[in-house]
Each structure stands twice: as C-alpha cells, then as structure tokens.
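#onboarding

Welcome to the new folks! Below is a worked example of what a typical request in this channel looks like: someone posts a single protein sequence, and someone else replies with the predicted structure as tokens. Don't worry about understanding the tokens yet, we'll cover that in week two.

Example request:
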Amino acid sequence: MNEYDDIIHMEHPISKKHARMPIEKRAAQFAPFAALTGLDDAIEQTGMEHTDSVQNAEVHIPDPDYPVE
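Example response:
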C-alpha cells in the first residue's frame, strides 16, 4: 500500500457555502509583493559593487604566462 492510496481517488471537495474562486483571482493570491522594501535595490547595488571589484581586480592580476621584466 502506498502512502496516499486511501485518498488518491477521492472526489475533490466542493464547498456548499462558497463559490469556486475564478482562476484570475487565484493567480493574484500568489503575485509577488514587497515584503522587504528596498531588498531589490540592495541586491542590485551589491551586485554592481562586486562586478566593479572583480573588474578592478582583473587589472591587477598578473598573467602567469607573461614574464614580468
């Protein structure tokens, strides 16, 4: 016997009190929201800082195949 054999073929329950919610409204429940205001800006700023630091570091990294005189 599998874990869900007792319920897998049951009919989906239908409420007698509430009409079924339209698909459009159900999708809206899962729309993104700004729980952490400013988080996107902070992530973007951090990414730009790291990109700048990597680009600056590449200028100072000596090429091991190129002899320094």
